[in-house]
Structures are given as structure tokens and as C-alpha cells.
Amino acid sequence: MEYNFYLEQKYLNEGRVEARILSAAQAEALGYEDDYRRSTADHKLYVVYTGPKQNVPEVLHLSDLYGGKGGVDLEVTVCRRTGKGDIVDQYVRFCEITDEKRKQYGRNQEAVAEILRQCEKENILTSFLTSRQKEVADIMVTLFDQEKVWAIHEYNVAMEAEEKGRVEGKAEGKAEGLLAAIRNLMDSMDWSVEQAMEALRVAEPDRPRYAELLQKQ
Q1: Does the global pTM surpass 0.70?
Q2: Phi/psi of residue 63, each to 5°?
């Protein structure tokens, strides 16, 4: 055995992880070897991929993140759309519908209603969404409401930058702060520049100038 101590981890069905430190002698007595890795039928981890990429690997390893094998590794099986119409296919489609309606209506109750309506129309997760419609809607509204918190935060950041610019006698302080806030909202909330400026209450006459500045960056 190469190391003096080893970490043993067991991932259980109910979501618990059992872990303990073993000496080299204990690990060897249990049949472990360096770079030991084992997956059993009743101890597996899965992740559902909902993105558009086609060349996603079937299995992910924790060691891939740090470029090589180590004393601890984790194997995750990737589930993705297969075209069979099974529960994974339906969940992926649900995520696509959510993205489509969110971009169309924003993050609000109208978007939630349209998401549920479209899922019912396409027979996506019908039994689950029908039996838990209010619960699902409440969860989605709660998640969408985070945009308001984020918008308030970005607005405060912009106002602080404006105040700093005023104190220092620099007009660009306000512009830089607002540009940063607009970019952050566009990236984090997947908003258009118009939606971001509306949330930050940018004055109508100033919006073309900020849109132009963003295009140049």
C-alpha cells in the first residue's frame, strides 16, 4: 500500500454517506488497493443532464476535476434524454419548457402557469404535476422570487458606485457601477439588456447609451 491511511466512503440508498479512516493494514485486510474503485448495483450516484450538448460522457469521475487519480474518487452515472419518453426524457423536456417560458415571460407567476399548462399539453410529468400542482407552483414561484432579491442587491451596488463617483467627482463612477450591475443581472438571471435595465430602473433616455457601452465591451 502506497499511503499510511485511506478514506473509505460508502454511499447509501437513503442519501447518507458513511466514511471512516483506515490504516494501510486495515485497508489491505479488507481487500482494498491503491486507486481502488467499486460500484455496486445498490450503491450508485446519478445526475440528470438537461443541457443541449451531445458529447456528454456516460460516467463522470471526481478525479477528472483535479486531473488525475487520488486517494478518493467518486463515480457518477449521467442520465440524459434517450427518446424513449421515459421519466428522464420527460424531466429534460420539463426543464426545456421552463427555460423557454422563463425567457418569454420572465421569472413570475405567469411563467409558472404557462410552464404547467405546456407540460399538461405535451403530457409531460402529468401524473406528478397534477397531484402536486400547488406544491410545484409554490416552489417555482419561490425560486423565481429570488430575482427580486438579486435585483435589489444589484441596484444597491449600482447606487453605491454612483455615490462613490459623486464623492470623488467622477461621473464615470455611476456608469461603471450600472454597467457592472446590468452585466451581472444578464449573466445570472439570463435576462436581456432591456430587462436588466428595467429592473435597475435605468432612466429611459440613458438606456441606449448603456446598451451601446455593453456592446463595446
Answers
A1: no
A2: -65, -20
